[in-house]
Amino acid sequence: MFGGPEIVQEFLRPLPDEIEERLADVIAALPGLGPSSRVLDVGSGTGCLIPHLQARGVQDILAVDVSAAMVQQLQVLYPAPSSCGNDPGVRTWQGDFLQVPAYMGPVTAICMNAVFGNFVDLHEALLKAALILQPGGHLVISHVMGREWHAQLHRERPAMVPNALPDKAQLQQLIADLPLELVQYTDEPDLYIAVLQVPPGYRFSAAPVVLEGTVVTGFGRGSRQLGVPTANMDPVPLQQQLQQLPRGVYFGWAQLDAPGDWPAADSAVHKMVMNVGRRPTVNTGDEAPTIEVHVLHKYSHEEFYGANIRVVVAGFVRPEIRFSGLPQLLARIKTDTAIAKSQLDEPAAAALRVHSSFKQ
């Protein structure tokens, strides 16, 4: 659609000064950019944002576009810094943003200029952005012709632009179950800018959330199929607390009331990763939602059904996702666990280890 030589040449024409000024405003909306930033430019075209990013001191830019012709032109304009792919400079990747490999992240910021409405599923695009941004990282969604101009384009060419740009309320609804916060929204006749952030430390408004209950029998698939032992909590008595926890993956601290003849370490407070939801990748039907706590401690006994467990939830990593298979799920579990371990070492989350709900 955007890959013909005529379109590429059109993209290479100098932009009017007022458009360049608006592009500068888009990049100015991203806080904290500098030499250490890593920025992903989605739907980069021939790179209209790149000079403005470089003017902010950004040296490490990954330009992504589905068009091979656009990427080839970018490579002419901005030769690769080196063959290893790790040096600062403008690197390119041709393909759908939704398929960008995880190893290309995390990034400091993501730019979606004049491209967000081209996604068929806006929520899926926002989820992908949340997964590849580092904690505290920002996503800017923008259009330098404004939302009304874009809406007209959507009406005239729905196959090319399947979605209109969301207004503020619609955007808030789109991110309701995502680890994203709306931090800036500009909706002017000739400029649309929405800046979202993955909260530092993956904090969420209800945190810390305290759960306490009995370890019950789960479906058995966590340990058997994935090798990830979990303590399942009975969700029925915890309905009020669960209203503060959208389905997804969380991290925090957990303490098991281990039997007296177990080692003292089994009764200590340990890091944990928790899943709240229906586990769509491994479940076969409409099983009831579960609370699965993966305590990052090797207990001296494998079974502790009936024991009491206390959990303090500190951060929200991601919503529940249906993966294509168990290998993909397991890879993501490893990523979630790594995130939990590192974030729980940060001062704000680490302080919850001595939360008043725990026995010291």
Automatic annotation (TrEMBL):
The keyword Flavoprotein applies. It comes from the Eukaryota. InterPro entries: Riboflavin_kinase, Riboflavin_kinase_bac/euk, Riboflavin_kinase_dom_sf, SAM-dependent_MTases_sf. GO terms for biological process: FMN biosynthetic process; riboflavin biosynthetic process. Keywords: ATP-binding, Flavoprotein, FMN, Nucleotide-binding, Transferase. Residues 204-345 form the Riboflavin kinase domain. Its EC number is 2.7.1.26. Pathway: Cofactor biosynthesis; FMN biosynthesis; FMN from riboflavin (ATP route): step 1/1. The keyword DNA-binding does not apply. It is an enzyme of class 2 (transferase). SUPFAM superfamilies: Riboflavin kinase-like, S-adenosyl-L-methionine-dependent methyltransferases. GO terms for molecular function: ATP binding; riboflavin kinase activity. This is riboflavin kinase. It comes from Tetradesmus obliquus.
